[in-house]
Every structure is written in C-alpha cells, then in structure tokens.
Design brief:
This protein has 801 residues and is mostly beta strands. A hairpin with a 3-residue loop joins strand 9 and strand 10. The protein is 12% helix and 47% strand. The strands form seven sheets. The chain has an 18-stranded antiparallel beta sheet that branches. Strands 13-14-15-16-17-18-19-8-9-10-20 form an eleven-stranded mixed beta sheet.
C-alpha cells in the first residue's frame, strides 16, 4: 500500500514536470545568409517569440544555436541593411536556413533630438574603456591559432573555363592552412611560431598564413592598417568628430545589453575612414563583435570581421578573426578573385609567467618540421573539418604543383626577393649583371654565385663586366661561409678590380633595390684593386655588426693630384680596419620565404661606422680616423599622416684624397629628373666636399588628407632639407674643371611633392601613379636667379585606390 502511494506521488510529480522537461528539449539551430551571394551573415540578430530578451546573434560564420525551456513559436531575424524575416517555428527546429534580402534603403540616419546622440554616448564609454579592454595591454598571454585561407574565382566565364578543362570543378584555386602559437609579454614583446603549415601545390612551403596577415590582432589601436593604408579607428579618441554613429539595435545577452551601432565617415570629412558595425557589450563597454571595410573602395576591397569572448579571468579576448579580400576585375574585367581567411583562437592563457628573454630574434618563425605534419595531426587541430571543396583543392592542386614544379617556382620567388635568379646550382646576381651609370654606361657582364644545391654553408662566386662607355673590364671573386644561421654569423674573403663612386658610404648593411636612380647619375669614380676580409654577425638581439680589413690600391679616374704625401701622388694605397653597427630597437623580423625580413621598425634605426686608416701596414699610405652616423625613422600620426626624418653626420681627422672625403649628397641631374630620397634635390652630385658634415632630411606625407575631389586625390608631401659641412684639412691640388664648394654656411631647400596626379590602371589590382615635385634652394648657397634655384622632378607610385 505504501509502495502504491509512493508510486502515485512520483507519477503525479512526473506529470507536473513533463511539460517542463518537454519544453526544455527545444533546441533551434540554423544559418543566416545573404539571399543573393549565399555568403553567411555574421552577428545577425535573432529574437524568439517577439521578446527582445529571448534573443541571440549569429556567430562569425552566420550560425546560431538556441535552447529554451519555453515553447518557441516565432523567430524574427534582422541585420543592418537587410529586410527583416519573420518565421513560424514548427516541428523542424534544426538546420534552419534563413536568407535575408539586401535592402536598397540607406542605413537609418541620425535623428536630431534634444541631448546627445545615444550612439555617441555609448562610443564615448567604449573609448574611455579601450585601454582596459585592449588584449595587448595585458601583462602576458599565450594562445594557439588555426588559420585557413582560400582563393576562389568569381566570374562565371573563368569558372566555366576551369571546369571545362576538368581542373577543379568544385574546389578552390588555392588554399593554405597553418597552426601557430603566439606568446606575448607587455608592452610589445611578441613571438609567434608556426607549428604546422600546409599549402596546396607545395610539398615544402617556406611561408604560412597568420591571423594578422590582413588585419590587426585587436580592434583597439588608433590606426587600423589595411594594405599599407592607415585608417582611423572609429573607437579612437577624436573619432566622434570624424564618424557618424547610429544605434541600429539593442540586444540582450544574459544580464548584459549589446548595442548594435553602425558607423561611417561624416560628410565632408577628409580622412581615411572605415564603415561597418560595432557590437558593444555593456560588460566593461567592450567590443564583442566588429565588422569593418574601407569607406572608399579601391581596386582591392577588404572586409574584416572579429569576434571576442569573455574569458573566465574576466577579460575580452579575440576568438575568431575573419577577412575577405576581393579583386573585382582580376585577372580580367568582368571576373574577379576572392581571398577568404579564417583564424580560430583557442588554448588561451592570460597573465601567465613568460620569460621574454627566451624569445627568438624573429617575431614570426617557422619550425623545421612545420611542413611535415601528417593527416592525423591536422585532423586534431582543425576547428572545423575540411569540406569536400577543400579536399578537392588539395587533391587537384597538389597534383598540378608536382607536375609543374611549384616548389621550384617558390625557390625562384625567394631568390628574386634578394635580387637573384637561380639557375640550377648557381644564382645570377641581378645587381652585378644589370649595371648602368653615367661613367661607364651599360656594363655588359655577369654576376653568379653558388647556392645551397651545391654547398649548404659555403658560397663561391664572382662577377665580370665591360663598360660600353669607359671601355674597361671589371671583375671580382668572393667566398663566404655561414658559421651560424641563428646569429647571422658569416665570414668572407673578396677580391675585386672594380670602380667605386667617390664619397661612397662605408656602411656594410646594403638594402637591395631593383632600381636606384642615385647609382644611375653617378659619374665620378675611383678604380680600385682590393682584397678584403669581412665578418658579420648579430649580437645583443637588435644589433648587427660588420668588421672588415681592407687593402686597396686606388687610381682616381679624373684629373687629380694629392699633395698630402711626399712625393705628391696620383695613385695611393688605402689599408683600413672598419667596424659598422646597425641598431634597430624592437624591429619586427619575420622568417618567411627562406629569409629574415624586417616588416616593422617602431623606433629610429641607428647606423654607426668607424674606419681606421692603417698607414704603414700592408703599404697603407694614410693614418686617419673616419666616423659616420645615421639616424632615420618613419612614423604615422593619427589625422596627420606619415613623417620621415634622416639625420646623418661624418668626421675625418686627417687630410685624405678626394675619393675618401664626403661628397655625392646631391641628386640634381639634367638628364634624370627623378626625386631621389635622402639627397638634396637641388644640389648637383659632387658640388660640395667635406671632411665633416651634418645633414638633416625631413618629409611629411599628408596622403589624401588635404584634398579630395572625386577620383582625383593627389597625395601631398612637404620636404625640408638642411646641410652644413667644412673642409678643415686640404692637401690636394685642384686643377681646372675640378670644381667643388665648401658647405660652411647652411644649405637649405624646401620642396612640395604631389603624387597620383595621373593614375593608370595596373592589371586591375591598383593604380600606377605619376606625380611631380618642385624644390627650391635658398640660404647661403642660393643663386641669384629664381629659375636656377628651382628643381622640377618626377615621381612614380603604386596604390590600390
């Protein structure tokens, strides 16, 4: 009897709870997409039963999941710029597909009401809390990131062509995956190691995709760089005077409120602006989600989406970073290419002890076995399994890559970046093969060096060439041995019978460039027969050193006699010991494409060179001390543009021949009227001669901040250059037609440069721009005639808009 009563009680309790249990099983899931493009819509708002407090937003991939203990009968989906959709919820609550139709109507405009725009009040609180919410202001963090990038064609014509050839059908044309681990210590110590990389078509890729390839790690810096253009962040200080903010929606997440705010530049405000949506969570007034794209479109259209999560430690931290880059008319008009990248961040550890002394010199580096991970590894690290299109891409493109030797093409790219072209076990040196200057004309010859296909640590090579104007041969040979790749430690021997421009800097850290117009206008040279020993290495993390011992027999190739020796001489021998240093504090070095590449220099770079002349040693004619130093830096200022300065100075304590003094700082030439940076634009190359000098070159590029008129958007730059020098120790005869001046009064020039005056479409990915500059010479060495002081020069640039 007691058992029967108990059973009835449990049965009654079950009857009471059954509806609750039944309704507790209501789970709704689905995807929200754009009806026309079929692309997922991130952060769309979904409200159930017309109750704002029963609402969620889709994730960054347009997916949503919702559970409720109450019956759900209706669903309302909305997204800024799209028409709302209301649906009845029936028995099928899983995998619901919601397609939103884009609305031709503009976003809601700000309605002028008494008091402040409510969106502005919210943004003001976001700005006040941005330093506390910026993850890169944490004392330290570690995270792992899975990155996936796909390349696809947009035009149907191209797609049909590919399918007709049975190349891809349902696959992408290119795909990359990587897994990275990043460690960070405040304020700016960062190291990211590529644990795994996989690239379609390549068996051993030397590059990898990163979460920050196309966008910043977080959306809190004052300036957001997209494709080398700095855009003003809508949540930076002062942005309320630049942007229009509109409160589009109010959502509820547990006990917090989420404000959906659209933003775009205010009319007639001249700056590089963004447009998109901000989802602001009232918990710390932090960014929960953000979408952003340049307001003014160019040949390349870039959009980003970021999603943040509130961690157990009480911080907002990036969870997923996506971008889409569209080339709307590439590779041909009417077609296009879209690059989509997704980065998933997990395994986050905040404020954990990290010893920054253990960081490598590279900010990003690739583990040796990164390209050798097997399928089991990849299956465990992917946040989402590969789709059929991904599998097809790897299968087809890997086959094509093997057949067409994509790895060989990658090697070619790696070498070309360094100015070399690989031919089996030799590298052709472009800088030694393609030579032109006003003294020797074209040099017909060849420069070649062995590569790691022959020797891994040793490089043998040389060059030869014949001048078509001076009718003389030049040649040389060298051997270099790498002692340590980590410390960039090398030793080398070199012999050359060559020409060297007078007054040339003796710094031993050349930066390769495919064109240098300053070399083109060079016309005064010394002939040297030189033997030298050099060692180079990196020490103290941010410092590179070069130590050299040189013995050179010098023959000036101009009428000249030096009277500082007894007897007077036309030829001389210079034996010297040189020490050069380059100090670049906090420089960001990325290991990619088989080399170390500097991608960011946040602080000024210092170059110092000391040369000691060794008179009496190995026939050296001169005892002297020669010191040179350069400090240079480029930085961006919000709402102002890019500023660049270069300060340089030199000192010599004894009389020396013309070729060892300081000259060659001018770049005015009647035949080559091109702006050449870090030179005096109104000064002829060898107009002044010094044994001590100080020069300052400054420029500021306003970009398009000062003037815009539709597509006509010239970039405006202002230059100011100052120079001083003296010649305290003169010991040479100055024959006729060998003029020089002493710069013991200030040399001053100011210039105005206008870039992008004319723009030409380049491969539908950007514009080649032609511009001009006018420079005026004044101060102690100004000419009497206005026209003589004026120098007009041309410039060429490239931009995406």
């Amino acid at each position: 009897m007691i058992l029967k009563i108990c059973f009835k009680k449990y049965l009654l309790l079950l009857c009471i709870l059954f509806p609750v249990l039944l309704f507790g099983q209501v789970r709704i899931s689905g995807t929200v997409t754009d009806e026309a493009t079929k692309e997922p819509l991130a952060f769309a708002s979904i409200i159930f039963n017309n109750d704002p407090k029963q609402g969620i937003t889709t994730d960054i991939n347009g997916n949503f999941q919702y559970s409720s203990s109450k019956p759900v009968t209706t669903l309302k989906c909305s997204y800024v710029g799209y028409q709302d959709v209301v649906m009845q919820i029936g028995s099928n609550t899983q995998n619901i597909s919601i397609a939103l139709q884009f609305s031709a109507n503009e976003l809601n405009e700000v309605v002028i009401t008494p008091g402040e725009n409510p969106a502005n009040r919210i943004i003001r609180k976001v700005i006040a809390n941005k330093d506390a919410n910026n993850p890169e202001n944490l004392s330290s963090f570690i995270y792992r990131c899975y990155n996936k990038v796909t390349f696809d064609l947009k035009g149907q014509k191209l797609k049909d062509s590919i399918e007709a050839k049975n190349i891809l059908k349902d696959g992408h044309i290119f795909m990359m995956e990587s897994v990275t681990e990043r460690r960070y210590v405040s304020p700016d110590n960062s190291e990211e190691v590529v644990l795994a990389t996989k690239v379609s078509g390549f068996s051993n890729p030397s590059f990898a995709s990163l979460a920050t390839d196309m966008q910043p790690f977080s959306f809190y810096d004052d300036n957001i760089p997209f494709l080398n253009i700095n855009y003003l962040n809508p949540v930076s200080r002062g942005s309320l005077n630049k942007y229009r903010f509109t409160l589009q929606d109010t959502l509820y997440a547990n006990r917090d409120t989420v404000y959906v705010i659209s933003y775009k530049p205010l009319p007639r405000k001249n700056f590089e602006g963004l447009t998109g949506l901000l989802y602001i969570n009232t918990n710390k007034y932090a960014i929960q989600n953000v979408t952003a794209a340049p307001y003014e479109k160019g040949k390349i259209d870039l959009r980003i989406q970021q999603q943040y999560v509130y961690t157990p430690e009480g911080y907002w931290f990036p969870q997923q970073l996506d971008y889409a880059m569209e080339l709307n008319n590439y590779p041909e008009p009417g077609s296009g290419m879209i690059v989509e990248g997704k980065s998933y961040i997990d395994s986050v550890a905040i404020n954990t002890p990290i010893n920054k002394r253990d960081f490598r010199v590279e900010s990003v580096w690739i583990k040796e076995d990164a390209a050798k991970k097997d399928s089991i590894y990849w299956a465990n690290v992917r946040n989402t399994p590969l789709e059929s299109s991904d599998i097809t891409t790897y299968r087809v493109i890997d086959s094509i890559g093997q057949k067409n030797n994509f790895d060989g093409l990658l090697t070619l790219m790696e070498k070309m970046v360094k100015g070399r072209v690989p031919v089996k076990f030799l590298d052709i040196d472009i800088g030694k093969t393609l030579v032109y200057n006003k003294y020797e004309g074209f040099r017909l010859g060849l420069g070649a060096y062995t590569n790691d296909r022959l020797f891994e640590k040793v490089e043998l090579g040389g060059f030869f060439g014949y001048g078509t104007k001076d009718y003389e041969w030049k040649y040389g040979a060298s051997v270099n041995y790498e002692l340590s790749e980590k410390h960039e430690f090398t030793v080398g021997l070199k012999y050359q019978d060559n020409i060297v421009e007078v007054g040339e800097h003796t710094f031993k850290f050349p930066e390769f460039s495919y064109y240098d117009f300053r070399n083109v206008i060079a016309s005064r040279f010394d002939r040297i027969r030189e033997e030298s020993f050099t060692t180079a290495f990196r020490a103290l993390r941010y410092t590179k050193w070069n130590v050299s011992l040189s013995h050179a027999k010098v023959t000036p190739k101009y009428e000249y006699v030096f009277s500082g020796t007894n007897p007077q001489t036309f030829r001389y021998t210079n034996t010297s010991l040189g020490v050069s240093m380059r100090f670049a504090y906090k420089e960001k070095i990325v290991q990619s494409f088989g080399q170390r590449v500097t991608t960011d220099l946040p602080y000024p770079v210092l170059y110092v060179n000391y040369t000691r002349g060794l008179g009496g040693f190995i026939e050296g004619d001169f005892n002297y001390n020669k010191i040179e130093a350069i400090v240079q830096h480029t930085f961006f200022t919000k709402n102002f543009g890019n500023s660049t300065f270069r300060a340089e100075a030199g000192y010599i304590d004894k009389p020396l021949p013309f070729g060892l003094l300081f000259t060659g700082e001018g770049s005015y030439d009647n035949d080559v009227k091109v702006i050449i940076k870090n030179t005096f634009q109104t000064m002829t190359p060898y107009e002044f001669l010094s044994d001590r000098y100080v020069n300052l070159f400054t420029s500021h590029n306003f970009g398009g901040l000062l003037f815009k008129a539709g597509s006509f958007q010239p970039h405006i730059s202002i230059h100011n250059n100052i120079g001083w020098g003296s010649l305290e120790n003169t010991a040479f005869q100055n024959p006729q037609n060998f003029d020089y001046k002493i710069k013991d009064k200030l040399y001053l020039e100011t210039g105005l440069q206008l870039d992008h005056l004319l723009k030409m479409n380049y491969l539908n990915i950007g514009y080649l721009g032609l511009g001009a500059g006018a420079f005026y010479r004044y101060g102690g060495y100004a000419y009497d005639s206005f026209n003589d002081n004026l120098a007009l020069k041309l410039t060429a640039t490239f931009s995406i808009k």
